[in-house]
Amino acid sequence: MKTYKALEQTFCRIAAVNGALAMLGWDQSAMMPDGGARARAEQMATLSVVRHDWLTDPALGERIARAETEAGKLSDWQQANLREMQRQWSHATALTPALVDARSRATAACEMVWRKARADSDFKAFAKAFRPVLDLTREVAAAKADAFGLSPYDALLDEYEPGGRAARIDKLFAELGGFLPGFIDKAMAKQAKAPAILPLDGPFATETQRAVGLRFMKALGFDFNHGRLDVSLHPFTGGVPDDVRLTTRYEEADFTKALMGVLHETGHALYELGLPKAWRDQPVGEARGMALHESQSLLVEMQVCRGDEFLGWAAPILRKAFGGSGPAWEEPNLRRVYTRVRPGLIRVDADEVTYPAHVILRYRLEQALLAGDLAIADLPDAWNDGMSSLLGVEVPDDRHGCLQDIHWPAGSIGYFPTYTLGAMAAAQLFAAAKAQDAAILPGIGKGDFRPLLRWLRSNVHGRGSLLTTDELLQAATGKPLGAAAFKAHLKARYLS
Amino acid sequence: MKTYKALEQTFCRIAAVNGALAMLGWDQSAMMPDGGARARAEQMATLSVVRHDWLTDPALGERIARAETEAGKLSDWQQANLREMQRQWSHATALTPALVDARSRATAACEMVWRKARADSDFKAFAKAFRPVLDLTREVAAAKADAFGLSPYDALLDEYEPGGRAARIDKLFAELGGFLPGFIDKAMAKQAKAPAILPLDGPFATETQRAVGLRFMKALGFDFNHGRLDVSLHPFTGGVPDDVRLTTRYEEADFTKALMGVLHETGHALYELGLPKAWRDQPVGEARGMALHESQSLLVEMQVCRGDEFLGWAAPILRKAFGGSGPAWEEPNLRRVYTRVRPGLIRVDADEVTYPAHVILRYRLEQALLAGDLAIADLPDAWNDGMSSLLGVEVPDDRHGCLQDIHWPAGSIGYFPTYTLGAMAAAQLFAAAKAQDAAILPGIGKGDFRPLLRWLRSNVHGRGSLLTTDELLQAATGKPLGAAAFKAHLKARYLS
């Protein structure tokens, strides 16, 4: 027990450094003037080294091993905490400091090149900087594969989605990949027969958009004693569970994007805010993984806030706040705005029906890149072919094609599938929630989100990393992760 | 040289942790919701321990000693850097970790009690929590006195004002203490014969106040690529030299305080922004001490911005921004507003003429407290007697008396005198600057602060901690720190 308790203390210190890094990262995106970049990079690099040194201290590994021999005396939560400690330790120690350092430098350099290359649609410039990133990511994958007895891709995936495996994803994506093309056609055919979307005419003052966002956040259960809403170029949810920092970006001509962006981030934030308080600053108190995290943002954004009940409640609030009137501002038109299906080039602008195609393409390509089956030089053609066959769109240039996302330049391979795993989990969780508590849906229609939040708190948020993603879904919905609920959701929303 | 270079690397890492702490501290005051307090305290405590461990590493002491034997090969700046490293190391190692920890806990507890005790004017409650703070501060003073061969008070003073000594301050304060009472009477007599102050009627929208503040900051040379202006309960200047974070507090009924507050903090900020870029992240690149830091804020606020030239330039800007008109908004009335002399109870609200009396009282009392010549229980009477004899005001309760400041509850003894040392240095520097560059004063009258900033950059800011305070003043003004320029300034402004 003493050994375990000492581990808790070490991880509490690690959590404090993680928290400091999270706050500095938020500030960098939301507050920092450009001229602060050099000093901030030094601060964050120094703290990252401190964290890495603590996490790879050989004494820590020995202590974890010793605690494991005494695990029988620990509670379920303590055992899960120890398992997560081991997980973090093994991910950190699988890599040599030299490899960590080399990858961090290569990705930093590649990100810089990518920013310009994307703007210029200059794939050649990008490819040159991406070469070392891909090589080093392969080295990372090989080292972790070796340490964990996994395939290289699974070893990377495991960073973002603990326990996630490509074999499982292949099946789920095959099911979705078979379903979607025909479904998209049907949904678009139905949409074509519906009344045309009426424009919502702006401009919409930023301050008003912000006020509406804050009002909805409050209604959804966001606790402003433990967080803030600010502005950044790329919206995200950062900070720590006691102090969650959301960001969004406003366009005066169109309030609909920023508003739904705020609601999406609020889903992430509610997860963080609802993590088990008794396990703050411990690995088991952290969110389970990226699939569940995305499930919480998509549950709020896609399942709840683009649904009829929410939009019925929100419509008069939006009319009043923005001074709108007429049929454009009634629920049916807002619903058409918020459920428009339109195959397009850009993932972050995609609707929920076409979004999985963007992910499936990236998932296939990143596996091929990692395995060496796809040469970097052949990426644009492979991308453009995929977009054409999966979504029927022609890519005019790499800026609107394979250069659009930051993930690969940043060395993140294995992240993309979690978006669609999250979409499936969101549908599955929301279906179970509605089935288990009949007050949830009528509550949403009246702007009372307490029944929903109560269900999420006890079935998802409050469980931290106690269970695996599948165990959690099994406990909450009676099934492991599947595509059925997502398909049923799409049919109900877009075809009925 | 290798030894010295290794030291630079260590102090670069220490600077990164210092910078992280500074940003987290700024966020705590300017951005953080209350509910973030626990996590933030953990983050800051953890980073403080990291810094303390690095700074008290025995290997560091040995390396400094070794580098000192080779100091002949170092440049002036490197030698000064080594001296400042030694200074930081000796301050850190003079105290045992147990003493640092005990003091930090006692002051944290006392600050909490003080907040309530001040609001309730409850000296007894405060006294109980202050007892351990004073005892531990005495222990700190004794340990540092022992390590540095200084008196206990000087050992504390040296933290805030390197090289500052009470014997020197006694003389300066005696000169000022002899001059001020008669001067205050004369200034007030003259003021009584001047036209009455015309009220500036509000309300003044916060956004307008902020816009005016930003305009003046920009004019003074603040670089918004390297800093921001935000809001906090207690205005301060934080952040790092590459990214200086100013705060202020707005009152809608009265713009004059927030505006002068912004200008005061801008003085601090210009010092930080102007520190030598070649020595960023090194001890010699830091500001020299609190006396010079305060000299820079007071030079901007008191010497420049309450002067005729500045107010003549600012008056039409203020009129236009706030929609004011009539004689209240002309320069003569603004000057009377900004140079009103009025003995009062509260230090932070005091004018520049009566301010030193507040400081002299605190300076005497904190020496007596530290020496044990004044019992905590006798502090209120001693305070009230002092206010009566120094300023002729009667203290109605301890909230407006000895409980008003956070310094003592926070364990800061030896800080107060730097305010008035700063006022004297400000007068001396500004007099020298005007004498050396005839373009400075006319520039200010036209809103062109470049000549002033140029002088400050080369004579103060850019010197970092290369020189001692006195060496810097000698080089810049031809004299060590004295009271003469301050007295001359007061006479010129208030009697002529």
Automatic annotation (TrEMBL), chains A, B:
Catalysis performed (reactions): Release of a C-terminal amino acid with broad specificity, except for -Pro
Signal peptide as annotated in the record: none
Top EC class of this enzyme: hydrolase
Single GO molecular function: carboxypeptidase activity
Keyword Protease set for record: yes
Alphabetic keyword roster: Carboxypeptidase, Hydrolase, Metal-binding, Metalloprotease, Protease
EC number, UniProt record: 3.4.17.19
InterPro entries assigned: Peptidase_M32_Taq
Pfam families with a match to the protein in the record: Peptidase_M32
PANTHER family: CARBOXYPEPTIDASE 1, METAL-DEPENDENT CARBOXYPEPTIDASE
UniProt function note: Broad specificity carboxypetidase that releases amino acids sequentially from the C-terminus, including neutral, aromatic, polar and basic residues.
Family, as annotated: Belongs to the peptidase M32 family.
Name of this chain's protein: Metal-dependent carboxypeptidase
Protein species of origin: Ferrovibrio xuzhouensis
